[in-house]
From TrEMBL:
Primary localization: membrane
Species this protein is from: Schistocephalus solidus
GO CC annotation terms, alphabetical: membrane raft; plasma membrane
Phylogenetic classification of the source organism: Eukaryota, Metazoa, Spiralia, Lophotrochozoa, Platyhelminthes
Protein name per the record: UPAR/Ly6 domain-containing protein qvr
PANTHER family named in the record: ATILLA, ISOFORM B-RELATED-RELATED (PTHR33562), PROTEIN QUIVER (PTHR33562:SF31)
Assembly with partners or alone: Interacts (via loop 2 of the three-fingered Ly-6 domain) with Sh/shaker; this interaction may stabilize both components of the complex and may be required for targeting or retention of Sh/shaker to neural cell projections. Interacts (via loop 2 of the three-fingered Ly-6 domain) with nAChRalpha3 and potentially other nicotinic acetylcholine receptors; this interaction is required for antagonism of nicotinic acetylcholine receptors.
Length: 126
């Protein structure tokens, strides 16, 4: 048992995520200009969960990119440091990350370990 005499409760850790939609803001698209990191044209929001970057391609083959905090999404899935392909679009994906402004990257680096374990557990006989 751990006791603390500190009367201040632990505050949840927040991260800053870029928040934009390329349908409304062309500066949201990849390649994300480095200068936009400090620009008012691409805002950031505080987030208690993960940042995300979601690319989808519509019926007219137009690319759309949305960046934000995963608390804005209504997903019933475990989010880890992974990217998942969007099955409803024509080659899109959604990626999650957990550091400040990590969803500004034009490429997400992630480990193949988590997706591989998930795939193997799905394919394993019950």
């Amino acid at each position: 048992m751990v006791l603390s005499q500190d009367p201040i409760p632990c505050q949840p850790r927040t991260i800053n995520c870029f928040s934009c939609n390329s349908s409304e803001n062309p500066f949201c698209l990849d390649v994300f200009p480095k200068r936009e990191v400090a620009s008012p044209r691409v805002k950031t929001i505080e987030c208690l969960e993960d940042c995300f970057k979601w690319l989808y391609i519509d019926r007219n083959n137009k690319r759309h990119l949305i960046r934000g905090c995963s608390a804005q999404l209504h997903l019933d899935l475990d989010r880890h440091l992974i990217c998942m392909y969007e099955s409803r679009s024509r080659g899109g994906y959604i990626c999650f990350c957990t550091t400040d402004r990590c969803n500004g990257s034009s490429r997400f680096a992630f480990s193949l370990t988590v997706p591989l374990i998930a795939l193997l557990s799905y394919l394993a006989p019950s």
